[in-house]
Design brief:
By secondary structure, the protein is of the alpha+beta class. Helix content is 23%, strand content 22%.
Length: 160
């Protein structure tokens, strides 16, 4: 779907791949990121796409918070990052329409990541809140000794 003109109820700074798009009705009441509702016998409507050819579709958008942790002191910075995640976990899961919250750790790369996903149709509402509680979480994360390279990224997810 090509983005329509911005509407007053939507912020003008939406994610570049989402834009203020008009979503098909099958995505409006999604039970999960990739389970559009449809009645038996209905022809499924197309999911929104990123590319002009209409081949790269998505129904879910994720926000990733990531950082590097230090190996020293028994990976204490990783322990502190996990404790911080646990402090915010219920608040993150309470974000309207959030469908999945994942915590990923790579011991080899020293990566700590939190990935929060929501149906594409609901994502602009969370984006309008500046991904609450992102700012507070990242601020506290930055205060942990041994945590570096704090970044965020927004991307689409599609189950294949």
């Amino acid at each position: 779907l090509k983005p329509s003109a911005p509407q007053a109820s939507q912020p003008s700074n939406l994610s570049p791949f989402l834009g203020p798009a008009a979503f098909p009705p099958c995505l409006e009441n999604m039970g999960g990121c990739m389970q559009p509702t449809q009645k038996k016998g209905e022809v499924p409507e197309k999911l929104p796409t990123i590319d002009e050819a209409g081949k790269v579709s998505f129904g879910c958008i994720a926000r990733e918070w990531r950082c590097k942790f230090a190996e020293d002191a028994g990976k204490l910075s990783l322990t502190k990052a996990q404790e911080l995640f646990e402090k915010y976990e219920s608040q993150i899961k309470a974000v309207p329409h959030v469908k999945n919250v994942q915590r990923i750790v790579c011991g080899g790369c020293l990566d700590f990541k939190v990935i929060i996903s929501a149906p594409a149709v609901a994502f602009p509402d969370w984006e309008a809140t500046k991904f609450e509680p992102e700012e507070a979480f990242l601020k506290e994360l930055a205060e942990i000794d041994g945590i570096t390279s704090i970044e965020t990224q927004t991307y689409t997810l599609t189950e294949m």
